[in-house]
Amino acid sequence: xxxxxxxxxxxxxxxxxxxxxxxxxxxxxxxxxxxxxxxxxxxxxxxxxxxxxxxxxxxxxxxxxxxxxxxxxxxxxxxxxxxxxxxxxxxxxxxxxxxxxxxxxxxxxxxxxxxxxxxxxxxxxxxxxxxxxxxxxxxxxxxxxxxxxxxxxxxxxxxxxxxxxxxxxxxxxxxxxxxxxxxxxxxxxxxxxxxxxxxxxxxxxxxxxxxxxxxxxxxxxxxxxxxxxxxxxxxxxxxxxxxxxxxxxxxxxxxxxxxxxxxxxxxxxxxxxxxxxxxxxxxxxxxxxxxxxxxxxxxxxxxxxxxxxxxxxxxxxxxxxxxxxxxxxxxxxxxxxxxxxxxxxxxxxxxxxxxxxxxxxxxxxxxxxxxxxxxxxxxxxxxxxxxxxxxxxxxxxxxxxxxxxxxxxxxxxxxxxxxxxxxxxxxxxxxxx
Length: 433
Ligand code: S3P
Fold this sequence. Notes:
This protein is α/β, with parallel strands linked by helices. The protein has helices spanning 21-33, 47-58, 94-104, 125-133, 168-178, 196-203, 235-247, 266-273, 318-327, 347-357, 387-397, 412-415, 419-424; strands at residues 3-6, 13-16, 35-41, 62-67, 70-76, 88-89, 111-114, 138-139, 148-150, 156-157, 160-162, 181-182, 184-188, 209-211, 215-219, 228-230, 252-259, 277-286, 289-297, 331-334, 361-365, 368-372, 379-382, 404-407, 429-432. The relative contact order is 0.15. Bound molecules: shikimate-3-phosphate.
């Protein structure tokens, strides 16, 4: 399927975006190994998180779905998972595979984790290395890619691990394996990454320590207690709405109840630095996560160097930020983005390709790009089957000189079901063809 975007003038609107993907995955995984029921509201019923639900059901967990965005998980306790009847297919989801590798490394039974073509090319050595040090036995393809064969019945022991790359997925995998390990497990991160795992574990009764120099630890063998989880809107999805609004002539949009966990808000800081008129209204808490309504208005953006210190706090937002840079005046320099090359696609290459096809001058570097602001022509671009590339280029299409077609947008449903309806509410004409 493709997106066909007809440039239109956006209008003022109040919108909501689907639930946070990272928190939804964690709610299902932690709820499954907790004792008692975990009732989740605002769940992201996108393909990625539904793959996590299917995997947990295959391991004997009862997960009911009382409504489109609610999940009710009957926790089976730390040792209650059962051997699945076959491979666990995690689709497009790196989060599901890496976190699940940690969760399954200490089980009594064998598991095999598989994924789609994109996931099958993504690096898993980064979780295999620390888990192996903990005593796990995990085999991958020779280049460290899926499928992963995880041997059951291994006794894990706690370790300290210095993460070589800033990755919340790797941090979480080690901490989840740590629940099954003897003694204490801890990690040190080279830069702050999203802390949803730590917050949710604490809410479920597991003390997680956070000490200086980004060092996070927990003691093995502790029981989790099921709880109610209210999932905020996903700031990563809200970013596409923010982007469309900033680029528009004069739209004024309110996005309700968006997660603004400080480990995720790099995109807000970067856009504000470019001159975005963005405000957080009505800040409050939803369970263990901070949320706010985001007010955004059309803005004249100005390019410049983007602070690499903000990269890990905005890791999923760079496709959208590349489009913002392309619409800004002057030159924007991105660096420190090597991790983008191993996301759902090589996002530096994918965005450089898409923007060039729309007439923008982009110079790719090994760990970033230099984007020179200009006008978007119409044309045809490829999403490289990457949801965030597809939605970013769709927003560019709203202000292009002519129609923009984005090829291969099927994976948008992994993170943002209802994307076209949501942007239609603000006047954007994005059709699925
Ligand atoms: C995620 C962590 C990030 C992010 C991904 C979700 C998570 O990945 O890109 O979309 O939920 O932990 P890395 O840990 O690989 O940076």
